């Protein structure tokens, strides 16, 4: 089945946002089993959904990612979970620079870069752009780039080649 780029993007965003919604009851908790109700009354969107939408908005409209993230954080409040304390301070201070985070927030919101990039180099540039405004520690950047790479390869039905060396 051939889909248009806009349909493909819409389906991709549904997948990213549904993943956050389904996983939201376990935000900050570890799941200890593999049987759970996929949609329950405890499901709600989190800050990860808001930031993923903000990144998509920034890339689609050629807006500064930091500006987009700050605007979306002011416009929409998460139903579950919440922003980390340092990230919250950054969101509320428009002049703040990247704060050296090595956390997973960059990887959590990077998926639109993988979907909107035409080539691996384009994906890498987009992933770096939307991550470096906060997660400028090399571990944070590498995590976001690895996540974007995995998504881009899946999107393009690429083969993963693993080596034991």
Protein described:
The protein has 165 residues and is an all-alpha fold. It has one domain: ADP-ribosylglycohydrolase fold, CATH 1.10.4080. Helices cover 57% and strands 0% of the residues. The protein has 8 helices and no strands. It has helices spanning 5-23, 47-61, 65-75, 85-91, 105-109, 111-116, 120-132, 138-155. α2 (47-61) crosses α3 (65-75) and α7 (120-132) packs antiparallel against α8. The longest helix has 19 residues, at 5-23. The chain is globular and about 40 Å long. 33% of the residues are buried. The model has no long low-confidence stretch (mean pLDDT 86). It holds the Pfam family ADP_ribosyl_GH. It comes from Rugamonas brunnea. InterPro entries: ADP-ribosylglycohydrolase, Ribosyl_crysJ1, Ribosyl_crysJ1_sf.
Brief descriptors of the model:
0% strand; ADP-ribosylglycohydrolase family protein; ADP-ribosylglycohydrolase fold; Ribosyl_crysJ1_sf; magnesium; Ribosyl_crysJ1; 165 residues; globular; mainly alpha; hydrolase activity
What is the CATH domain class?
Mainly Alpha
Reported for the largest beta sheet, the result is:
none
Helix content: 55-70%
The appropriate CATH architecture is Orthogonal Bundle
Could you tell me the mean pLDDT?
Answer: 86
The CATH topology corresponds to ADP-ribosylglycohydrolase fold
Strand content: under 5%
Broad shape: globular
Rg, alpha carbons: 16 Å
Can you tell me the CATH superfamily?
A: ADP-ribosylation/Crystallin J1
Helix-and-strand structural type: mainly alpha
User: pLDDT under 50 segments (min length 5)?
Assistant: none
How many structural domains does the protein architecture include? Answer: 1
How many strands? 0
Separation, N- and C-terminal Cα atoms: 38 Å
Tell me the series of helices and strands, N- to C-terminal.
Answer: HHHHHHHH
